[in-house]
Structures are given as structure tokens and as C-alpha cells.
Amino acid sequence: MANFYTDNRDLKFHLTHPLMKRIVELREKNFTEKDRFDFAPLDYEDAIDSYDRVLEVIGEICGDTVAPNAESVDAEGPQVVDGHVAYARGTQQNLDALRKANLMGITLPREYGGLNLSVIPYTMAADIVSRADAGFVNIWGLQDCAETINEFADADQKRRFLTRVSAGETCAMDLTEPDAGSDLQAVQLKATQKPDGSWVLNGVKRFITNGDGNISLVLARSEDGTSDGRGLSMFIYDRTHNAVKVRRIEHKLGIIGSPTCELVFKDAPAELVGARKLGLIKYVMALMNGARLGIGAQSVGVSEAAYREALAYAKDRRQFGKAIIQFPAVYEMLANMKAKLDASRSLLYETCRFVDIYKTMDKISQERTPTPDERNEMKYYQRLADIFTPLLKGMASEYCNQLAYDAIQIHGGSGFMKDYPVERIYRDARITSIYEGTTQLQVVAAIRGVTTGAFLKQIREVYEVAEIRPELQNFRRTLQEMTAEYEECVAGVTAVKNSEFLDFHARRLVEMAGNIIMGYLLIWDSQRDEHYTKSAGIFIKHAEADNRHKKHYIESVGLEDLGFFKYE
Length: 568
Known about the structure:
Layout lengths: L8 H7 L4 H8 L16 H33 L2 E3 L2 E3 L2 H12 L18 H14 L4 H4 L4 H8 L2 H12 L4 E4 L15 E4 L5 E11 L5 E7 L10 E7 L5 E6 L10 E14 L5 H38 L1 E2 L2 E2 L4 H40 L4 H40 L9 H9 L9 H13 L2 H10 L9 H23 L3 H30 L4 H24 L12
Parallel strand pairs: 3-6
Antiparallel strand pairs: 1-2, 4-5, 5-9, 6-7, 7-9, 8-9, 10-11
Helix pairs in contact: 2-10, 3-4, 3-5, 5-9, 9-10, 9-11, 9-12, 10-11, 10-16, 10-17, 11-12, 11-13, 13-16, 14-16, 15-16, 15-17, 16-17
């Protein structure tokens, strides 16, 4: 009997972060719902206990059902049957187990059958599910689409659709098309309003994760004569209409259990969500922030799986008369893997805290007029959420790929065979730095945190001044030196006043900031628990070397050198 929550001390550590008290109080509206719902928490301790119990159930299902099914799901995959998706048997078993445990729609308000979990325990659940099977989290985790319905739909739509998600129905977000991948302004799926005011959708969507979900959010062109994002609106499509067919399921490198579909809409009845013309400008942006967190959690969960497989193999595999974990070449790799895993998980839950407070306060502001202090607090956390979510997605997904690569290397030739889970983990990891916005696009979003000074402000005014134990001071001094070097690089690049030059060095600048931030987060973790001191030391040493390398490169490649890199 395995439990993927209780066997991972890092999750409980982040669940009990000091800022959780503020988050829970906001989410539970100072525990006023205890009079309306028997299962609403009475106080902070009761809420954390509820989170803990939910995560323990998810951990048990993942350890006993989802993880054991992962290999068979990868081998079998989903199929198209009569224009609809038929999941692999293991996938259906996973869904049935989670539905039976009432673990669908877990972030939704209690009035719609949800558990009202905040972003952090929900993300932890995604972290756990991803460790068990990275493909399955794409089906289970799309319940996050319901949050967009909860945020922007009308009362009747919420009542009809959110209760179904809580009861176990699956979701999808239908955004991309054959000629509109990352450039969603190019979406052409046609939304036509009929004389009676209802809407129908016609066209094709491609690369849609869990495309045959019960309830889909669809981005479509509602305004005739437009060709940009201002002509797009968001719609809900209900699969019971049976007006959308799955043309094919893509044959993918990894996450095979997750059906990636090409969909054909033919006079498909749909319901407008919110206001016309705001589909991309407002609603998809809200979806994408949640998606970035979701892929961040998936990346960390896959990293956890890769590290554990590599560690177990290194302890068991013997060469030249001893376990290979005793060789410096191997134990160095494992130590670096653990440091990157701890760093990316710390960044994940730091970002979650920002999003949790901002989103909850935003909901409160829709119910009553916030005080000036509350409004300032909401704006503060919104700014942080906007720059940290792309930073997280970019850094965590790249580390995920690195850890999966190293896990294969530690297994040697055996890792290249399908006899060991790392072969599947390696294939599953690759998508994390591609979908929901490639690493390159995350840099485009995160560079604002560099050019506006927002990352530097957070480093200097929050992370750098925190109280720490004397034995951690050397780590802080190193990070202070790294911060000065980062500031110098930012000044040098922006002084050129050339957007192409900034774009060229953007990834280096963003990753330099990320290295410093994750280093400080690990110091903070070490302040609370000495268990993280080793990872902090290892990570900061590597981050220092990496930032120095980036600084040297930035200083070496000037505006006049860009021509060397261009292709005609």
C-alpha cells in the first residue's frame, strides 16, 4: 500500500507555510460557511486538517491505482470509437476511483458540490497525480476549467455546469487550431448567433487535450470582419449535444494516456460565457495563468518520479563490487537532481501563494467593496502572480526535462528499455516545456519582471532582508553578489534600447533572476527546516556558476554580433 502524499515530507512542509493562515482565512471568509455546510471548517487548524485528509486520500489512490496503471495506459492508449474518445482501461479505473472519492471539482464552492480547496492543496494534488502518471493529470487536472466558468459565467451556467464537474464530469479547453497554435489571435472557428439569440459553432480545433470532455470551453470568432483577438469570444459546449466529432487522436511521443484530439464542430450549440469580444483578451488569459500553474505542478511531479526512480536504481545496481550510488559521478548527479527538485517545488508553492491570495481577494472584491488596504494587497499579489507564473512554468519544465534525462543516464542502457518506468517518464517530461506556451513564450511573459524591476524589487525588499540563522549567511552573501551581477546585466542590456537585443538575451536574464529567487526560497526553507540546507548549498553553488556564465555571455555578445546568429 503506497501513499504518494504521506511518503513525501516536502508536501506537508509547504502546506504548513506561515502564509497559509492568511490564505485559508481569506478562502473560508473567516470561517463563516460553517453555519451553512456541515463539512466547512471551523477554524484554521480544522481547514488544514481537511486539506491533509483530502491529500492523503489522493495520495493513496495515486499510489495504489494511478501509478500501477501508468504502464498499461501508456501501452494501450485511448482510441476513437464512433467519433468519441474511449479511454484506456487504466484511465477509466483512475477516473472511477477519484469520482468515487468525490475528488473532482475540488476547488469549486461548496454550493456547487465542491470542497472549496484553495490553489495550494489543489496544486499539491496535481503534483501527486503527476508523479503517478503525467498523462492522467491532463484529464483530471482540466477540472481547473471549471474555475473559469465559476469566475466569468452567469449564475444559471454555474448552477448547471459546476455541479456536473463536482459530480465527476471531465472538462477541456478548446483553443488551438491547425493554423493557430500559440498565436491564438488567428483562431477562425466560427461562432454564429441565430435569430433566437442562441449560438452555434463551426470549424476545426486541433491539439486539444482531453478534447472529448463532457464540458468544453471553446475560443471562437464571434465578430464578422475581424482578424485579431478583439473578435474572439468564449463559449461553453456541452457534449450531450453530440455535435462535435473527434476526427483523430494524435500519436504522441509521451503522455499517451491523455487523448490529444482533432475536433470537428458542425452547427454545435454553444453558450456565450461573459461578454462578447473578451474571449482572448480576458478569459483565455485567466485560463492560461491556471494552466501555467498546472504545468508547473506536472513538471515538479514528473521530476519527483524521475528522482525517485534514479535514486532507487542507484542504490540497487551494483558495478565493480559496490552500489553505483557510491561513485562520485553518480551521487553528484543525484544530489543535483534533488537540489533542482527542491528548488522548483519551492518556486511552485511560492507562486501558488501569490495566486491564491490574489484570486481569493479578487472574488471577495466582486462580493463587497474592498478596503484600501485590501485593494493594495490584491494588486501587490496580482503583480507577483503575473510575473511568477511564467517564471515557474519555464524553470520547472526545463528542470523536469533535465531530471528525466539524468534519470535515464543513471539507469544506463537499462533506462533506454521499456522494462523501467524512466523510459516513459523521459517521454512524458518532454512536453512540459512545449505545451501551454513554450519556454520561449514564458520568457516573453516573464521578461516584464526583469525590465520593470519587479523581480529585483522582490529580491531586495523581501527575500534579501529576511531573518536567517548565522550558518546560512554565507549563502545569502553569495546571492547578494549574484543579485549585483544580475542588476548589472539588466542595466547593460536595457541601456542598448533595442528590442531585438533585449529579446536575444531575455532568457538569460529571466533565468538569472530565477536562479537567485530559487536560491533565496531554499534559504527560507532551510530556516524553517534544516533538511533543506543541503539542497540550498548545492543549488546556490550551481546557480552562481550558471549566472556567471550567463553574465560573461551577455557581455561578450553585443548588438553588433546578432547578425552572426541570423538565417537568410
